[in-house]
Amino acid sequence: MDIIVDHRERRSGITKDLARRGFEVDIRTLESADFIVETQDKEGNVYALGIEKKTQLDFLNSMMDKRILRQLLELKRNFSKQLLIIEGDRNIYTLRNFHPNAIRGMLAAIAIDFQIPVIYTKSVKDTAAVLAVIAKRLEKPSRHYSLIPKRKAATLKERQEYIVEALPGVGPTLARSLLKTFGSIKNIFTAREETLRKMERMGEKKAEKIIDTIHHEYEE
To answer: Are residues 31 and 69 in the same domain?
Structure first.
């Protein structure tokens, strides 16, 4: 499995650590990103992930000259998925004479405005371990995660309430009220929209969403 590494990271120790872990390290001169890893998402789609790595001090220095913004923009232009790794185990707020809110503001901008996730590692070895975990996702079958948190329902009553609560805008109180009024999940699912609207705490929009959820054809 290959991991592409920018030549400036040759002496960081990460390349040696990745090689010891069994990865083929392809050292190149990269215009953007320090590492390129081929990985996949939970749907099984394979893509190249562009990763920018900063030590804590370099991250702060790049804030001063706006270099970090230019580098992240290049990541966005060249890769469909991007990641920023900040490496170091010191208190980043004490390394330079920065107001803490300036650092917090930059991290918030990266996560929210750029929509680039940030991973914090403690050392070179830790960074190499993160890269290895990302790359090894290709070796595993893609997983589909349930949208509903798993919980063990002890009784039939609780299972019925749990199913009804999954409907849009339905909480525990409304779920119990619907079950008491209609008598069963089947009757709720076959009820007319006009009938649902008459329920207390329901309303027109909520009833419309419930009907749409129940009757709309499933699209992959």
So the answer is: yes
